[in-house]
Automatic annotation (TrEMBL):
InterPro entries: Diverse_Substrate_Transporter, EamA_dom, EmrE-like. It comes from Candidatus Accumulibacter adjunctus. Pfam families: EamA. It is found in: Cell membrane. It is a multi-pass membrane protein. This is Carboxylate/amino acid/amine transporter. Keywords: Cell membrane, Membrane, Transmembrane, Transmembrane helix. GO terms for cellular component: plasma membrane. Residues 11-147, 164-296 form the EamA domain. The lineage of its organism: Bacteria, Pseudomonadati, Pseudomonadota, Betaproteobacteria, Candidatus Accumulibacter. Its main location: membrane. The chain crosses the membrane at residues 45-63, 75-101, 107-125, 137-154, 160-179, 191-212, 224-242, 254-274, 280-297.
Length: 299
C-alpha cells in the first residue's frame, strides 16, 4: 500500500492533522450537549472520561506488560502531566465553553502552540528554525483575522471575559503538557505514556465529580450520553494516541504548529452544525492557517 512507503516524518504529519481534526470536534460535541440538556461541565467531562476509560486501561496494561517498571521520576512526570493535560486543561476548557462560542474558544485555546514553543525554548533547550517561525506567523495571523469579527461583535462582555479566562488557563495547562510530553514519550513510548496520563486524568476527574456531585448526576438524557461517547472516541481516545505518535515522529513543536489547523476546522463545523456565523474574514484566515500548516508539514 502507498502509505507503507511513507517516511516517519510524513506519517507524523498525517497523524498530527488527524489529531487536530478529532480535537477540533470536541467543542462542537460540548456545545451540542449543553444545548440538549442542562448538564454541567464537571458531569459532562466525567462522562467523557468514563467512556474513554476502557480503551486507556487496555492500552496501558498491554503497553506496560513487557516494559521495564517506571522510575519515581517517570511516575512524577505521568502524574503531573496527566493532571495538567487532560484534567486541568479539559475542566477549565469545559467551564469556558459554558460562556463563549466554540469558535472563540478555539482562538483562545490555540495560544498554546506559542506557549509551548516558548516553554521549549526557555526550559528544554529547543531552537526554532525559519520554517517553524514562518509557519507560526502565518497560522496566527490567520487565526487573528478569522476571529477579529467575532471579538468585535461579541455580546455580554462579562461572560466573554469569564469564559476567556477559563480557556486561557486551559491553554497554559495544555502547553505545559505538550512541552513535557516529548521527553516523557521518548522514555516510556507514545502508547504507554498516553494511556497512563489519561488514567491519571480520569481518576482526578472522577474524584472531582464524586466530591461535588451525586452519583445520580451521571443519569443524563440519551443525547447527552451519545455526545459523551462521541467525545470519548472521536475527540479523546483516537486523537490522543495520534498526537502522541506524532510527537514521537516530528517533535512537540512541529506537532503544535500543524495543530493550528484545529481552529479553522472548528469554525467550519461550528457554522455547519451550530449555525455560528462564517464571515469573509474567517475564510481569509482559514487560507492563512492552511498555508502555515502546509509549510510546517513540508520535510
Amino acid at each position: 500500500m502507498p502509505w507503507k512507503n511513507w517516511s516517519a516524518e510524513r506519517i507524523g504529519v498525517a497523524l498530527a492533522l488527524l489529531a487536530a481534526l478529532g480535537f477540533s470536534l470536541k467543542a462542537i460535541f460540548v456545545k451540542l450537549a449543553y444545548a440538549a440538556a442542562p448538564v454541567d461541565a464537571v458531569t459532562l467531562l466525567s462522562l467523557r472520561m468514563i467512556f474513554s476509560l476502557p480503551a486507556f486501561l487496555w492500552v496501558g496494561l498491554a503497553a506496560s506488560r513487557s516494559a521495564p517498571p517506571l522510575t519515581r521520576g517517570d511516575w512524577l512526570a505521568v502524574l503531573l502531566l496527566g493532571l495538567l493535560g487532560y484534567y486541568g486543561a479539559s475542566m477549565l476548557d469545559f467551564l469556558g465553553l459554558q460562556y463563549i462560542s466554540a469558535g472563540l474558544e478555539r482562538l483562545i485555546l490555540f495560544t498554546y502552540p506559542t506557549l509551548t514553543l516558548i516553554i521549549a525554548v526557555l526550559w528544554l533547550g529547543k531552537r526554532l528554525g525559519r520554517r517553524e517561525i514562518a509557519s507560526l506567523l502565518l497560522s496566527y495571523a490567520g487565526i487573528a483575522l478569522a476571529f477579529a469579527h467575532d471579538l468585535r461583535v461579541a455580546g455580554e462582555t462579562d461572560a466573554v471575559l469569564v469564559g476567556g479566562a477559563f480557556v486561557l488557563a486551559s491553554s497554559l495547562c495544555y502547553a505545559i503538557y505538550v512541552a513535557g510530553s516529548g521527553p516523557a514519550i521518548a522514555r516510556l513510548g507514545a502508547a504507554r505514556f498516553t494511556a497512563l496520563a489519561m488514567l491519571v486524568s480520569t481518576l482526578a476527574t472522577l474524584l472531582h465529580f464524586l466530591a461535588t456531585r451525586p452519583l445520580s448526576a451521571l443519569l443524563q438524557p440519551r443525547p447527552v450520553l451519545l455526545y459523551g461517547v462521541a467525545m470519548a472516541v472521536v475527540s479523546t481516545v483516537v486523537p490522543a494516541f495520534m498526537q502522541s505518535a506524532a510527537v514521537r515522529r516530528i517533535g512537540p513543536e512541529r506537532m503544535v504548529l500543524i495543530g493550528t489547523l484545529g481552529p479553522m476546522l472548528t469554525i467550519f463545523f461550528g457554522w455547519l452544525v451550530l449555525d455560528e456565523p462564517l464571515s469573509a474574514a474567517q475564510i481569509a484566515g482559514a487560507v492563512l492557517v492552511l498555508a502555515g500548516v502546509v509549510l510546517a508539514g513540508r520535510g
